[in-house]
Design brief:
- The protein has one domain: Ribokinase (UDP-N-acetylmuramoyl-L-alanine:D-glutamate ligase), CATH 3.40.1190.
- By secondary structure, it is α/β, with parallel strands linked by helices.
- 33% of the residues lie in helices and 20% in strands.
- The strands form 2 sheets. A 6-stranded mixed beta sheet has the order 3-2-1-4-5-6.
- Strand 1, helix 1 and strand 2 form a beta-alpha-beta unit.
- It starts with a strand and ends in a 22-residue tail after the last helix.
- The chain has 9 helices and 9 strands.
- It is globular.
- The site of 4-amino-5-hydroxymethyl-2-methylpyrimidine has 17 residues, from strand 1, strand 2 and helix 7.
Amino acid sequence: MIPNVLTIAGTDPSGGAGVQADLKTFSAHRTYGMSVITALVAQTTTGVSSVHPVPAGFVADQLRTLLDDVRVDAVKIGMLSEAEIIRVVAAELRRYALPNVVLDPVMVAKSGDRLLAAEAVTALREELLPHVDLVTPNLPEAADLLGEPELDDTENMPAQAARLAELGVPRVLLKGGHLAARHSVDVLYTAGKAEFLHGRRVDTDNDHGTGCTLSAAVAALRTGTPDWSVAVREAKDYLTGALRAADLLDVGHGHGPVHHFHRWWDGTEDPPGLSAGDPARHKGAIS
Ligand SMILES: Nc1ncnc2c1ncn2[C@@H]1O[C@H](COP(=O)(O)OP(=O)(O)OP(=O)(O)O)[C@@H](O)[C@H]1O
Ligand SMILES: Cc1ncc(CO)c(N)n1
């Protein structure tokens, strides 16, 4: 059976971040993608010009209408925009006991524009974080969630990930993409243990939506493995490939998108005929 994966997020007309990136990522992993939209965002590769949040009651309507009908195997949550939307999403997550929930605590776009009201960070930390299975903050988001200064080295990342876990979330993927290093280092913290994930840094301007793509890939991959660490490692490997192939795309004048279908369009796709439930589906994704 093909897994159903849901994104709850905002939009990006340029297709590199938000709901559009999530749906491409779900499809790239042979899962069936669905979306509940929290905010319409006028943005492109050069930045955000305005945000139009969806009324919280209508976000709830979208969720209930969908979840009364469709089985959901994994969820990725991205931009939530406002505290009221956070509350609605937290309530529906619990009401429907949704499995495999990955929260990308989107706060600020790469361009520096805010995607979450500053006063909504408390609601995110207290009302949503304790109800998800994995949270994937970048370094500024981790600092904001904890009310700490932003880290500028990898050494202290495991301890900071542990402090985030103390907020009530079982797994933390702390992303080091914002560090100016030769390697792009993330830390996965689970049950008292931290593991470093090293990816070669890709030299490209097309890095819009890397966080969205990574968290969506983790949710999709989790439907094919019981092991979160395997899902996270495969997702990072997929993202690194998408960054490496990103310069094939010619989209906009700023931070362009990554290449979500790099494995399919460059002739290196899996052989046809693997069924969606086959664990071999993701074979070859681990570096
Ligand atoms: N140039 C790069 N080369 C390789 N990996 C990268 C690069 N930039 C980011 N990454 C990786 O991408 C993932 C996302 O990291 P980042 O810290 O940029 O997230 P983010 O700020 O949430 O992204 P965004 O807001 O654009 O969606 C991490 O795994 C990070 O290590
Ligand atoms: C809708 C949306 N979600 C997340 C991000 C973060 O990259 C973005 N730019 N736009």
